[in-house]
Amino acid sequence: MHYGAHQDQWLRFYAPEQVTALGAVMIIHGGYWREKYTAQLGEALAMDLAARGIPTYNLEYRRGPGSAAQMLADARLALALIKEEGPITLIGHSAGGHLASLLAAHEERVTQVISQAGLLDLQLAKTLRLSNDAVDEMLGDADLSSVNPVELWPMPARVVIFHGRADADVPVKIARRAADHAAALGQQHTLRIFDGDHFSWIDPSSHQWEACVKQLYPLHYKGAR
């Protein structure tokens, strides 16, 4: 499904053979907001969730230098295409965790965000100059505070912060700092630190991914037929 004229403005639906869950899940890929990283990173996760009976969507969005405002606009347009009633969980990896939380801050329809090694504190990521100043590259002329998830909390959606101790791409201190912000602001959240690196979260055979799936059960399977 295309939600705009640009080649990267699309949302792919993965339909379960039999729907056994309530609502829907949207996968948002990472890649430090750079164009060379695509929604292919989320395909295996979307397929796995659909096989478990969950209506699942995999988002592609415009990326690249100065893309802060357009990626949020894209995510909001894509969310409007999801017609399932019931809870909506966004699962975002790395930069996708940033966009998932940003989207939830603007759309009350989102029930839960699962951040997988997410860039939830852009100020800290900027200070650490992660991935060759990727935050500055993505921001362009945009104001950091306007797209920094921790500065937009509290919001109605619960944030589940998953991170790996051995993450060399997004240091675990990002997750811990985000959880500190959440606690101070009264943001509903859960922090869970696992063994593993940055990419274990997007491997459907990993125990890290299985932890993400289990996080869906209280919302999406309670009362499901």
UniProtKB/TrEMBL annotation:
One Pfam family this sequence matches: BD-FAE
Q: What is this protein called?
A: BD-FAE-like domain-containing protein
UniProt KW keywords: Hydrolase
Q: Which organism is it from?
A: Glutamicibacter ardleyensis
Has keyword Ribonucleoprotein? no
State the Gene3D superfamilies in the record.
alpha/beta hydrolase
- SUPFAM superfamilies per the UniProt record, alphabetical: alpha/beta-Hydrolases
Determine the domain of life of the protein's source: Bacteria
The chain positions of domain BD-FAE-like read 14-173
